[in-house]
Amino acid sequence: MVETKRLTRRAMAFVLAGGRGSRLKELTDKRVKPAVYFGGKTRIVDFALSNAMNSGIRKIAIATQYKAHSLIRHCQRGWNFFRAERNEFLDILPASQRMSEDHWYRGTADAVTQNIDIVDSYDVDYIIILAGDHIYKMDYEIMLREHVESGADVTVGCLTVPRSEASAFGVMAVDDGGRITSFLEKPKDPPGMPGDPDKSLASMGIYVFNWAFLRDLLTRDADDSNSSHDFGHDLIPDIVRNGKAMAHKFDDSCVRAAGAPAYWKDVGTVDAFWQANIDLTDFTPELNLWDQDWPIWTYSESAPPAKFIHDEEDRRGIAISSMVSGGCIISGTEIRNSLLFTQVHTNSYAALDHVVALPYVTVERHARLRNAVIDRGVVIPEGLIVGEDPQEDAKWFRVSEGGVTLITQDMLDRRAAGL
Questions:
Q1: pTM
Q2: Hey, is 98 helix, strand or coil?
Q3: 185: annotated binding-site residue?
């Protein structure tokens, strides 16, 4: 245990949280993907930050770029408990042309390069690079220890995926000892794993480095005009060819109940976002948000308990197989298999089925909504029916390939104006 504490105290987490997430369509019109709401009260970025804190890492930096205000405000409100006098830090690092006036962050590696002086000030031996836009629970200490014991230049977090699905990822070919022998970006014929040819190792975008090694590598990469200054495209393949890159299996450090599958989701599309949220309403969801041993920390808005009112025929406030957050008022509405974020108010004779409603949504009387995602602050007008006629829905809203309807206030305003 003593050595575990020494390792985490000598490490920092650098969270890359600048990507727009354009596949989430209008959900990222006003916020970056890591700031998108998830699970009733959290944001996507909370998972990487909580994993770091639960792993014992108390020095964290977050690099932001695209529409960062919502993310920055969330971190200021929900992650302001770090104390410098205890040698704890959470620094927010917006792209600010610190090295040049002609570019912002040019790639994932450049986001670290532009903040070398800040990382130096942390006085750490190890740096863990994290993507801020995935849903998972992982003990980074296990990966860090494996990195140190192997003497690797870089250790890459890898998912075990069916080989038939691996073409969507950057794929690692490894030898029997776990050393990466090649890195292939979205290959048509992904390599199988040693001893399990039907599975492949896909990169999670999580990397552990010795800071001195990475600092030198970043400095050289910054001077390379042919580089895209990206970890996955440039730095990791270079280390695979010229150094020692090791693969770390997510199965070995995933935090889960005994016997449960390893849970990792990229909620980067409307369909994936909707499904991952709806999955939480299952009897025993694969992602355990109730685990007190590995909590997901976030900004907890002050809100009263949820309230359910009316008990009349066709006007009964009920929620079945659903998650309902604080501040919600379910007034004469039937809710099934849905997830309601903070301060959602629904009115009499309405019905929600497989709906994800983000904070401060209002649903007026007689509305019927099915298989939908409702953006923050939307007011659903009286009598609106969604999810029963896809062609009609598509006239006004965004209907995904999987049949999920995304509703924003701008869409409703255009519908009301007949535009």
A1: 0.94
A2: coil
A3: yes
Q: Is 360 annotated as a binding residue?
A: no
The Cα 309–Cα 225 span in angstroms is 64
Please check if 195 is assigned to a binding site: no
Q: Is 388 annotated as a binding residue?
A: no
- Is 307 within any annotated ligand binding site? no
Per-residue confidence in pLDDT tens, the chain, 419 aa: 344 457 989 999 999 998 778 999 999 999 999 999 999 999 999 999 999 999 999 999 999 988 899 999 999 999 999 998 888 999 999 886 555 555 568 889 999 999 999 999 999 999 999 999 999 999 999 999 999 999 999 999 999 999 988 988 889 999 999 999 999 888 889 998 888 899 999 999 999 999 999 999 999 999 998 899 999 889 999 999 999 999 999 999 999 988 899 999 999 999 999 999 999 999 999 999 999 999 999 998 899 999 999 999 999 999 999 999 999 999 999 999 999 999 999 999 999 999 999 999 999 999 999 999 999 999 999 999 999 999 999 999 999 999 999 999 999 999 999 87
SS3 content of the chain, % helix, strand, coil (to 5): 30, 30, 40
What is d(CA 327, CA 66) in angstroms, rounded to the nearest whole number? 30
DSSP label at residue 125: S
